[in-house]
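Appendix B, example 12.
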Amino acid sequence: MKCRKLREAIMFSISREDLCAKAPFPIFPAYTLEPPSSNHSHYIFPGRDLEKARQLFDEALAELGMNKSEFPPLIFIFH
């Protein structure tokens, strides 16, 4: 994905907590590249912000010359 705003929109739209809660085994959301045991307090992956996600998504579509009906569905796979 070459469009930075689109990647950011997807990042802000994901609820990591909800994804982890639906996993068939215990997993925890990641907000940093450091393991939880490191007590790293600087998050590089932000939490969910749907307003910002929508704004970035609309800006990305404009940059790509697309409208929402032309945007293909996204499929997330995690394990």
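The CA atoms of residues 30 and 37 lie 12 Å apart. The mean pLDDT is 86.
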